[in-house]
Amino acid sequence: GDSVTQMEGPVTLSEEAFLTINCTYTATGYPSLFWYVQYPGEGLQLLLKATKADDKGSNKGFEATYRKETTSFHLEKGSVQVSDSAVYFCALSGSSGGSNYKLTFGKGTLLTVNP
Amino acid sequence: EAGVAQSPRYKIIEKRQSVAFWCNPISGHATLYWYQQILGQGPKLLIQFQNNGVVDDSQLPKDRFSAERLKGVDSTLKIQPAKLEDSAVYLCASSFPGSSYNEQFFGPGTRLTVL
Known about the structure:
The complex is a heterodimer.
Chain A: E1 3-6, E2 11-14, E3 19-21, E4 23-26, E5 32-38, E6 44-50, E7 56-59, E8 62-65, E9 75-77, E10 86-93, E11 103-105, E12 109-114
Chain B: E1 5-7, E2 10-13, E3 19-24, E4 31-37, E5 44-50, E6 53-56, E7 65-68, E8 75-79, E9 88-95, E10 105-106, E11 110-114
Parallel strand pairs in B: 2-11
Antiparallel strand pairs in B: 1-3, 3-8, 4-5, 4-9, 5-6, 7-8, 9-10, 9-11
């Protein structure tokens, strides 16, 4: 079945540092890939997405590129801020086609950014 | 636009008791999902509805969990009887079918503690 493996946390960085959170996936078909973010006390929010190979998703300074050859979707940001402190989830959906768009999530990576 | 509503936000029960969670999706969203998020793990799909029909309930422990969406709008998830391992956050999400990736919007979740 589908699975997502992401970098274990927690990750602690200083403000303005470079961020990478690794994510790799296993899927039988051609999934769409996502990064969701969960800020303290809030629900999951879609951060960015990519629906086909070589697509780059971007939002709020974060980027991730859908790499089919390495089955990866690593999250990057050039300069993190304290407000980026949150739990980040890599996820995939739609590999089996049809109307089942369930999301398969990784375990999440806690990011803490210190001033 | 109002988001996905869930209630209650928190619930503490004794094992073997029953509990019910309620979700009201975003207006017009035909697809509704219930996920279980155990501490330290990513959310796992329990059940997916399309209008009032079940699309996927393969990971729902049917001996104790049940869910319904009678009028194709709001939904209730029930656990009876609860076990200690059911302690988790229960997330409801909804989506509007038709987009290429079927973006899911999540509610704030219900945190269940089983003692």
